[in-house]
Amino acid sequence: MDKVKFLINMLLAFFIYPFNKHKFNGRDIWLIGGHSGDIYNDNSKFFYEYMLKEHNDVETYWVVNKDSKVFDKIPGKKLIRGSVENYLYYYNSKAIVFSHAPSADIAPYNFAVPVLNYFHKKTIKVFLNHGTISFKKRKPMNKKFKNIIDNLYKSYNIVTASSEFERNVMVNDWGMLDDSVYIIGNARYDNLPTNEVAQTRDILYTPTWRDWIKFSSGKFTDTDYFKNIMNFLNDDKLNKILDEKDINVKIYMHHLMHEFIDDIKENITGKRIVFLDKGVTLANEIRKSAANITDYSSVAIDFLYMNRPILFYQFDLDEYMEKVDSYIDLKSEMFGSLAYNNDEAVNKLIDIIENNFEVMDNQKNERNKFFRYNDNKNCKRIYDCVLSKIKYIFYK
Fold this sequence. Notes:
Layout: H1 2-24, E1 29-33, H2 42-54, E2 59-64, E3 77-80, H3 84-91, E4 95-98, H4 102-105, H5 118-122, E5 124-127, H6 143-154, E6 158-161, H7 164-172, E7 181-183, E8 203-206, H8 211-214, H9 224-233, H10 236-245, E9 249-251, H11 261-265, E10 273-275, H12 282-288, E11 291-294, H13 299-306, E12 310-313, H14 317-323, E13 337-339, H15 342-354, H16 361-364, H17 367-370, H18 378-394
């Protein structure tokens, strides 16, 4: 139903466009969005807030779903995703900035509609990605959509990368154009300190999603994913230490797995397990936390950036490598503490706590692989890059 509504709205905006063109003359409009208009997080959020603070001469709008739970938390000017106004402003924008794709975050389906895709070609397209490339390979495209996706990637004017490692993946594996990928850093890292003591001794647990579970017809509570997470969080030895040391484990389920959060809540016995809402500003929780537990989430790279300890609890390593795989060899190139079953995970987390959250040497040695810059000026570099493209395309 949404597709029909979006199509009607984009056509209405197209027919209105010539009669409203004079209203947009001389205006410098940038649209920013992420997570299909549902969540206010990640690189897009921090670049948007940078623009509001540092460049209020630019008309900057956040594109959001009308029914988003975080609608009222978003500052500045907003456009309702898929509305006539959204498409009209898109048709008159100088730049669009997104974390997933233009269709998901900025103007639903517009790029795929003949004639209307002129506006996709016209604006500067800036892909920020939503996390550092690391433990999750991009899946091969369905042949039916491969050419469309490949052409979409090649249409991006600016793709941000944090390192030569990340740039190589984008160009050589994803098929991004060599001259569109810039090593200028991730916007969200401007919010992260590198030499600051954590605000709490709490630990952030960020298990990532499994598409073979999300789209399965079986019961979530029967999966090994559920059982391994529950065995870990309900471990008596772990909960005793957490209680003695006055430490909480805060669990943030990946937004694509959040529908299963109640199954975990209902089976938790530990008093020190805290559940974070889907709409929480994850970056704030990352900054406050003393350590990270994950399986394959790129949140680990945020903790690597901050020089804080990471525990990888990879209870389904072989299955994950077969079904998803990683740009980092999960058996020979990992860093931090590694655990493959509940007992190892509990003992290694206790070691991290008992060692006062000291970072392992093998983790310290990996920072240069993932970050060219450590100066909290990534947003400025992104802005300068976009501005130079706008000047070249619109004012040459």
